[in-house]
Automatic annotation (TrEMBL), chain A:
Protein's name according to its UniProt entry: Nicotinate dehydrogenase FAD-subunit
Keywords: FAD, Flavoprotein, Oxidoreductase
GO molecular function terms attached to this record: FAD binding; nicotinate dehydrogenase activity
Origin organism lineage: Bacteria, Bacillati, Actinomycetota, Actinomycetes, Kitasatosporales
Record has Oxidoreductase as a keyword: yes
Organism annotation: Streptomyces jeddahensis
EC number(s) per entry: 1.17.1.5
InterPro entries tied to this protein: CO_DH_flav_C, CO_DH_flav_C_dom_sf, Diverse_Substr_Oxidored, FAD-bd_PCMH, FAD-bd_PCMH-like_sf, FAD-bd_PCMH_sub1, FAD-bd_PCMH_sub2, Mopterin_DH_FAD-bd
UniProt key word Hydrolase: no
Automatic annotation (TrEMBL), chain B:
Protein name per UniProt: Nicotinate dehydrogenase small FeS subunit
EC number(s) on file: 1.17.1.5
Oxidoreductase in keyword set: yes
Gene3D superfamilies reported for this sequence: 3.10.20.30, [2Fe-2S]-binding domain
Enzyme class: oxidoreductase
Stretches of the chain forming a coiled coil according to its record: none
Species, as recorded: Streptomyces jeddahensis
Span of domain 2Fe-2S ferredoxin-type: 1-78
Top-rank lineage group of the source organism: Bacteria
Amino acid sequence: MDFLRPARWEEALAAKAEHLTAVPIAGGTDVMVEINFDHRRPEYLLDLNRIGELGEWEVGEDTVRLGASVPYTRIMEHLRAELPGLALASHTVASPQIRNRGGVGGNLGTASPAGDAHPALLAAGAEVEVESVRGSRRIPIDEFYTGVKRNALAPDELIRAIHIKKADGPQQYSKVGTRNAMVIAVCAFGLALHPETRTIRTGIGSAAPTPIRAQAAEEFLNAALDEGGFWDNGKIITPSVAKQFADLCAAACNPIDDVRGTASYRRHAVGVMARRTLTWTWESYRGTEPTAFRKGSAA
Amino acid sequence: MRVTFRVNGRRQEADDVWEGESLLYVLRERLGLPGSKNACEQGECGSCTVRLDGVPVCACLVAAGQVEGRDVVTVEGLADYAKERAAGGGCATHPGSCGTAGTSLDAARRWEARPTDSATGEGAQLAPIQQAFIDAGAVQCGFCTPGLLVAADEMLERNPNPSDADIREALSGNLCRCTGYEKILDAVRLAAARQSEGA
């Protein structure tokens, strides 16, 4: 095994191009587990810790450009206002020690269906900035996950940053596990209200081969909210609408039975989380000034 | 490969390190610092918790090559670390300057073996959090203790007056299989109380 330690991003790209089998390591919270247990013996480890820019973020007008290695701890501390869903999800990641090392880039690189960040990214709307010596491109988050622990990266590409839409309304995140810390999600659910476009977006984790959005549920709810004038009148969402939304979210799942839970439990739990997070976010939306989330009036 | 870094204020060199080796393995097997415990090797238990440039991490999940040129504090260095912090400076406030004072030649010459009592901490040089663990009876088999000490000490540095929820949150990555959590919480509360009395 060789240990590659590029000091700059361009050097990292060159090293990856030269050694396509090199496994990038930043926080190490996934990669080192595999090496410790002898599940993986990469020919090359590509250490990204020396590349300072990967640990930085920029808050732009509409999006946050989050460096691939920004630890979850930083997201919780500094980006709660801009990325409330991701901040909540970050807080459910493992333990303080892991949150001090791990970041969203690693979650995307591993692309486990159980990665905690995925539902929040799907719900908020995001693009993954990847680069190789051939050039840079942005992959929409909906196209990023291609299979169980598979993503849309080419062998010579590295994840540089994630561009996440800044919240224009309330966001929520919910995760089911046997305890609060140190659990892989049995299933997880993210929901974001986007009052500017009068849409909602969802993200489901650990209930299908990849993280997914519940698109039929989103379309149903978008239409129901529109028809009922809910965005304007701020009324409580009709229980039958919330129930139908929850049922459609559960139906979007394609889960398996495993040691952490059965498929039917996962479907049920996703429905419950969908209803709850909808209630929480909508209550929060109703509680704000009616115009607060309208385009152009945001502070 | 060779890895050069600072551990508890001392420059250390480890040779013939395998590229896939963890920081934990280097500390225990190459540098003779077995205080950080090896249990789960997957970041679940926290018994290998050390501070990397001041930040608590699981040493089992840090690749050895990643610590090149960086500062590590293990439970073995906790007493000195706490002492320097109390003296207002050192590693706690200036990462990188950790242990620059080291042991003076004079102090080294005057050193002699003294009897210590591990049951009471008498005669041993301990960090306040270590003494609090002894006084509160928070040590049973002792395997989780080093990681808990490092994690708890870091929390008290950041948050001198933690609520019970803060303590639980800060220690949520450290498992104790003797189920001694109540005594551990007592110990951290005790250390916090002593710290604010002393302040």
